[in-house]
């Protein structure tokens, strides 16, 4: 362009060259327009003849002198032809340069309207493959025979975390990623867990009966020995303990007998501890579990995730921290017992009848029904290895979606870990092949992670999060959990961040199983009614969502309303899963891989992240409405206690701010010129801040790790704000007004901060929200 400008300047302004002047004037008195066209050589001649240096000769009355006739000499015609040819060449060069620049420049045209189906456009940085072609390629490469081979390769009778078998499987995953041409690395952590005693045993004794020695155990239980009166407490849920309290049952120092299922062992123990129980015995009831009565259960009781002895910190070998424990570690004994042991105890219990809601036939237990519990678990240090592989993006390589699966298990763990690991490796192979051989170019990166110590409470994944939290929260925009994805064939369940609901819905409509889409097969009354469920604390995706603020999801094929009964046992084998799926493990694993793969590929294929910001608006408003109604009830019932102090006005305003900010961002996406990679990146970064900014910055991650105010756990959540209001409503003397006002203020500031971040530049906040 500089050369072109120089040439043009020399042509039109340089003295050595001739130039042509056009003069178009309109006769003000109605005459037709006349044209003056002079070449410089003629004009020079005229100037010399008239003795003036003006290019425009004027008559005495000031009007321009019009040359009436143009002399077509050979010299003039030669100049005209040369000038026309030169102008044509220059125009052609300018057009070529402009077109070439448009081809080379990385363009980020919008591939989607906000939360609608995408319409792709080619870019120079990463040619956009048609979405239908992407789906077809994945379907061609992810097949049942390939998964069958992976099942055989990654099946082990035993591969407990930190064992030689676990490390060997990790090396297999590493070699597979290397074979696929991926960038690979490992992450070592040195963790502390609890294992059963090597030389001794845990035991229970009912009254003066024989000593029972269960092989199963619950890691992280308090150790020691005690004797207390037995008390049956159904599943050990909060509602179960409320029913016992309503019956005025004394729960102090009792040994709780609770059924396995519905909630995690850690939640059961935490609920019992709130009732001042001394110990918890968990057993598989025959109405929920149809396996033999001698089957042992394994698990953990840390109400949290990660290494509980380095809460909030990574367990790297070189890190040194003062002795500290997670607030989620129980202060009471916890142990599993077999069905046969529990049956012998339940049959002998006296005392009152249980609540009618339980439908139980045994008694609750008398003060004389004593049980001695002895737990001798030993702390054990283990080295665990996480294995990673990455397919790098072609535009925003430093932004990535993570797919992960645990590699370890208490026993065979076929449903718990083998299926997930196999699908992880096969997805890595399929997508790598699409990039290498089929021309697929993801805009963002895809990270594949194989975790260890998942059975101890997602330890490997959480330690990685803790070690790289500051960078991960800025760059990882989604986590997809592949643990336990096939446990049956009659149902399908999904738990995930509201930001991912639109992606999930689209994938349900696109992925097929047995000839029908997953939506048609399992969501006849609507996917949110039949398929969507709340993410539980023991889900491996939960720390990504509630601790790190990364939009996360988990899913699984199920056996209708029943949970897979072999998790946490030595019976989780391929034969048992075959029976639960009617021999369709491979086909169901293919559908599960397609579901996870399509969501991941959509997130790295489109120019803009398809995340539904308005979903959180609905959740915030729902919670705020409930809190406001309860606050007004308290004001009416306790006017002296709350004359004017209790108000949720600012919380309502913060809710409105988020609503406006999310609507404005959706409008920005629609109205902005997105043929700009930086603008695309900026908008995506604004979307990525939403989940992270719902983490309360006003509480300690060591004391309360799950800081998400909408989906987390603790007194800081919007859901928990209703509890003190209920206490005030019934006149509970322990209700603390100042504590409630402080909690509501911090929740308000968190929501307002999220709205501010979503709005963009801080100098525009007043105008935006």
UniProtKB/TrEMBL annotation:
The keyword Manganese does not apply. The chain crosses the membrane at residues 77-98. One of its GO terms (molecular function) is transferrin receptor activity. CDD domains: M28_TfR. The keyword Plastid does not apply. It is found in: Cell membrane; Melanosome. Residues 386-590 form the Peptidase M28 domain. One of its GO terms (cellular component) is melanosome. GO terms for biological process: intracellular iron ion homeostasis; receptor internalization; transferrin transport. SUPFAM superfamilies: PA domain, Transferrin receptor-like dimerisation domain, Zn-dependent exopeptidases. Residues 649-758 form the Transferrin receptor-like dimerisation domain. Residues 223-292 form the PA domain. Pfam families: PA, Peptidase_M28, TFR_dimer. Stearoylated. Keywords: Cell membrane, Endocytosis, Glycoprotein, Lipoprotein, Membrane, Palmitate, Receptor, Transmembrane, Transmembrane helix. It is a single-pass type II membrane protein. InterPro entries: PA_dom_sf, PA_domain, Peptidase_M28, Peptidase_M28B, TFR-like_dimer_dom, TFR-like_dimer_dom_sf. It comes from the Eukaryota. Homodimer; disulfide-linked. Cellular uptake of iron occurs via receptor-mediated endocytosis of ligand-occupied transferrin receptor into specialized endosomes. Endosomal acidification leads to iron release. The apotransferrin-receptor complex is then recycled to the cell surface with a return to neutral pH and the concomitant loss of affinity of apotransferrin for its receptor. Transferrin receptor is necessary for development of erythrocytes and the nervous system. Acts as a lipid sensor that regulates mitochondrial fusion by regulating activation of the JNK pathway. Belongs to the peptidase M28 family. M28B subfamily. This is Transferrin receptor protein 1. It comes from Kryptolebias marmoratus. The lineage of its organism: Eukaryota, Metazoa, Chordata, Craniata, Vertebrata.
